[in-house]
Amino acid sequence: xxxxxxxxxxxxxxxxxxxxxxxxxxxxxxxxxxxxxxxxxxxxxxxxxxxxxxxxxxxxxxxxxxxxxxxxxxxxxxxxxxxxxxxxxxxxxxxxxxxxxxxxxxxxxxxxxxxxxxxxxxxxxxxxxxxxxxxxxxxxxxxxxxxxxxxxxxxxxxxxxxxxxxxxxxxxxxxxxxxxxxxxxxxxxxxxxxxxxxxxxxxxxxxxxxxxxxxxxxxxxxxxxxxxxxxxxxxxxxxxxxxxxxxxxxxxxxxxx
Length: 257
Prior knowledge:
Structural class: alpha/beta
Order of helices and strands: EEEHEEHEHHHEHEEEHH
Helix content: 25-40%
CATH topology of the largest domain: Rossmann fold
Strand content: 15-25%
Shape: globular
């Protein structure tokens, strides 16, 4: 994947405070280039809350979020003030993705495509083939395995050819072969777009991420390229670098841009 210099996503002092008084995300500031941004952190680190705010599912308590597509003359979108403008350019797969059991895969994806303004039946079939569900397109989704339902969720996130793709723990329920296929799809999608992939499994992102962001206790503690993270933590693998940052085993100079 070629390197990107243009920053597409700008997040400034974003926090999310719940009614209980606890913070899910606290004072996060960073910008992200086009490509694949791997968002790493243990369960409960704040990854899902941050992604929900970027995806306009929930509003931040404080802070600002702007997104600028990589092509065309479109000005930066104020995500909080004008969420509908982003939603037209967004593909989102939440961690808990529900399906309509009585619909076939073709009907289900056609329905979501129509909601996103996509009327092309050929595009729907193309997406089913991309996630290897074309051979079961006429089967009811209720009979699908968990992995098959997850792949259908991936297809609906991509059917509108989005500029921003957000996927939260997307490989849950996928077998090893499906995980590799999905990583390849995301790697190709990173060309000319921003793909944010949240996971606590380092192997999901180590071969495809152009940048890695690490969260801990609701805060962003690192943002850099995989090579720079390993270099700055004096480790030989991305997983070791991740653990070094999370456990703070040494005073590494890890940039948060």
